[in-house]
Design a protein that fits this description.
- The protein is an alpha+beta fold and 132 residues long.
- It has one domain (10-112).
- The chain has 1 helix and 3 strands; from the N terminus they run H-E-E-E.
- A 3-stranded antiparallel β-sheet has the order 1-2-3, covered by helices on one side.
- Strand 1 (79-86) and strand 2 (89-97) form a beta hairpin.
- It starts with 8 loop residues before the first helix and ends in a 20-residue tail after the last strand.
Length: 132
């Protein structure tokens, strides 16, 4: 009995294509996971800064209620405003003296300072060749 010859050409080509596809998927999975890790670390830093700022605001209010902190000067409405900053985040507090030695919190707002980047590098100027 004679065995028919086995053609390895198409099978080898199929295995090569499958190997290349798996390698590309592995590279994409790795790069996506690294990007997710960087984003998670950046978010964690922002959350830590916000909670630390919240803690600073609560401690300030505690010192103010205990009389260990001087109250800021009131504005024309009688509202006393304080701003605390940490890690690029800003906490704005508006207080009103309740007349009994305590304070009423009118506003307690956190925000992140943002400045627009005005420079855009490598942007096409809209003209071809020399102007003249």
């Amino acid at each position: 009995m004679k065995n028919p010859p086995i053609r390895l050409g198409p099978l080898a080509l199929l295995l090569t294509v499958i190997s290349i596809c798996l390698a590309i998927l592995a590279i994409l999975a790795f790069s996506t996971s690294r990007a997710d890790m960087r984003l998670a670390e950046k978010y964690a830093e922002t959350v830590q800064a916000r909670y630390a700022l919240e803690k600073d605001g609560q401690e300030y209010l505690c010192r103010l209620n205990a009389g260990r902190e001087a109250a800021p000067e009131p504005d024309e409405d009688g509202v006393r405003r304080i701003e605390l900053e940490r890690g690029g985040c800003l906490l704005s507090i508006a207080l009103l003296d309740d007349g009994q030695g305590g304070w009423t919190v009118l506003s307690w707002r956190q925000e992140k300072r943002w400045e627009q980047n005005e420079t855009i590098d490598n942007l096409w100027s809209g003209s071809f060749g020399k102007e003249g």
